[in-house]
User: Which sequence fits this backbone?
C-alpha cells in the first residue's frame, strides 16, 4: 500500500526511515497560521496534523497519509518556529528557568478523511540560560534550530538547555512515533 508523509520535516522523515517504514513525501502546503487560533495546545497541534493529512489525502485518495505537527507552549503562551536568529534568542530568554510543554500530534488519513489520530505532551524544564550561553548556542545551532518549535534539537546541542525532561523521546522529536507504528501495523501498512 502507498504511504505518504504529508510533511517536509527532516526529523519526521528520519524517524520513519530509521523505524524501517517505507513512505514517500508530499508537503501538505497548508496555511498553518489560519488554523492556530482557538483551543488548547493539544487541540491546535491535532488540528494542524489533521489538516496536513487531509490536504494530501484529498489529492491522493488511494494512499494512506500521515500528518503531524508540534506546538511549544510556555506559561500558556504558544510559540511558533522563530522567524530569525534575533527572535530565536528572544524565545530562549523567555524560556529560561521555565517549563516548555511540547505537544506533538499525528493523524492518519485515507480517502479524504482522518481514520486515526494521537497527541502527546512532554514537559521540558529549561535551566537558567545566560545571554553568553544563548549567543554561543545560536552561533553553533543556527539556522537548523530555526526550523524547530522550542528552538532546539534534542539530538544536538539543544539537550544543554534542559535540567529535566518528562515525556516520550519521539514526542519531543516531533511525532508520537510508537502509537503511529501501532496504527500502521493494525492497518497492514507495516509488518505486525
Assistant:
Amino acid at each position: 500500500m502507498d504511504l505518504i508523509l504529508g510533511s517536509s520535516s527532516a526529523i519526521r522523515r528520519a524517524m520513519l526511515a530509521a523505524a524501517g517504514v517505507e513512505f514517500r513525501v508530499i508537503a501538505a502546503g497548508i496555511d498553518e497560521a489560519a488554523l492556530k487560533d482557538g483551543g488548547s495546545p493539544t487541540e491546535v497541534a491535532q488540528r494542524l496534523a489533521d489538516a496536513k493529512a487531509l490536504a494530501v489525502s484529498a489529492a491522493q485518495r488511494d494512499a494512506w497519509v500521515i500528518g503531524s505537527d508540534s506546538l511549544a507552549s510556555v506559561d500558556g503562551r504558544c510559540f511558533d518556529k522563530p522567524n530569525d536568529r534575533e527572535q530565536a534568542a528572544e524565545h530562549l530568554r523567555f524560556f529560561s528557568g521555565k517549563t516548555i510543554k511540547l505537544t506533538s500530534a499525528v493523524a492518519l488519513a485515507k480517502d479524504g478523511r482522518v481514520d486515526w489520530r494521537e497527541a502527546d505532551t512532554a514537559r521540558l524544564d529549561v535551566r537558567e540560560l545566560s545571554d553568553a550561553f544563548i549567543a554561543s548556542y545560536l552561533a553553533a545551532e543556527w539556522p537548523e534550530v530555526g526550523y524547530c518549535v522550542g528552538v532546539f534539537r534534542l539530538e544536538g546541542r539543544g539537550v544543554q538547555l534542559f535540567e529535566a525532561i518528562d515525556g516520550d523521546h519521539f514526542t519531543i522529536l516531533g511525532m508520537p512515533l510508537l502509537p503511529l507504528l501501532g496504527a500502521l501495523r493494525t492497518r497492514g501498512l507495516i509488518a505486525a
Q: What stands out?
A: The chain has a mean pLDDT of 95. The two ends are 15 Å apart (CA to CA).
